[in-house]
Design goal:
Length: about 180
Amino acid sequence: MLSAAEELRVHGRRDASLKMAGRAVDWYRTRVGEEARKEETRSGLGDALYQAERWQEAKAVFAALAKHPADYYFEIYDKGRLGALAARLGDTAEARRIADELRRMEKPWLDGKHTFRAGRIVALLGDKDGAVALLREAIAQGAGISEVPDNYGYAFIYSHCVDLESLLGYPPFEGLITPKR
């Protein structure tokens, strides 16, 4: 359902996308027992709320997840979502703080995930040049190799990212995601 919501949004069907994301929220909320407690399930609920543009509800989910991340991938993911939510909710200082924290992160095997998340936050703050610079840096660090969906690469990922919608049509971004011969 979340993939369908993403595709609907990418193809200009925002209302249908929000409705599909709402269905995903309902599905995640029907999970029970051990399945409901899994970090992947709770993160999926947060993603569904995010795609449904239910920012405050998504923030509560990701704030709870960020307190005890299962590993550094979830740490990056949860912080990135919290930074994006801060930007969307008008907390510019918090969004910038999280973006800076992500950019300075030093751990093995980051593959640009931290820089990609920082770039998303910067894009939401309206700094197109800064966002494109961070996305270029993320690519140089290996982004698109292990970021979901794995087998598509950064051009697909970036063009399908709701946090980067403001960059669509912006020539430096389009040049970044356009296939090269």
